[in-house]
Amino acid sequence: MKFLFMLLWACALPLLALTYYSEENQPLNGQGPRGEASGFSVELLTLVWQEMGEKEHPIHFLPWAQGWYLLTQQPGAVLFATSHTRARSPHFLWACPISVSKISLIGRKQDKHTITSLDDLRPLRIGAMKADVGEQLLLNAGIAPQGIMSVERMDQVVRQLALARTDLVSANQDLLFHQIGRMGFNPAEFQVVAILSQQENCFAFNPATDPRKVERFQQALMRVMQSQAYRTLTQKYAHMLNFTLSKDLAPLLK
Hints:
There is one protein chain. By secondary structure, the protein is an alpha/beta fold. It has 2 domains: 2-100 and 199-237, D-Maltodextrin-Binding Protein, domain 2; 102-198, 3-Layer(aba) Sandwich (D-Maltodextrin-Binding Protein, domain 2), CATH 3.40.190. It is built from 8 helices and 10 strands. The longest helix has 14 residues, at 211-224. Pfam families: SBP_bac_3. It comes from Aeromonas diversa CDC 2478-85. Residues 23-238 form the Solute-binding protein family 3/N-terminal domain.
């Protein structure tokens, strides 16, 4: 019911308005103990608003699949942080980067999985979030939907793996390990089995959004990235997030 209300409300907005959506996936984005928006991408977005001379806008936190649906349907919808993949690129407008993510296959160390090709994945149960890049990369690579156990939230992905309901999970490596520790599990008991891909995380705009608005946003983001405030912000999160594409990486998916 809440999502239906959000959808009806979103469709009634003026076409020129930008409406910001995100998910609970710290330390990148989420809500603090008092319900306040928090995380690296939220703080970065606040700097962009300041650079553009705009007041802070509401950020609506939804399960990722719901935010993804609104991104595809609502003119002016902005969803962050969205992985900028080759398959997604032509379907949206983009302002980049927020950070860099490695989408990896993570398993329990005791299981000692060895993954050298996609064929090794076919007999396994792989956990992922619905409509997340970890799920979409597997589907785009030809992994059968029946082999992917998709859930709404990252904490559910972690719990599936910890309780051995899945063999591996496909997810943002940094965010998954952060969630593992946050839920009280020992990160040392889990390991990266293979890296599927790496890409920038970005602000994704519905394709019907005025391109001039997106360009103005992108230019403000680039100016922010040259500032001392940005350097201070990245230093704050440097032990939890990655901000540089690795040239030496050999991902499973080319």
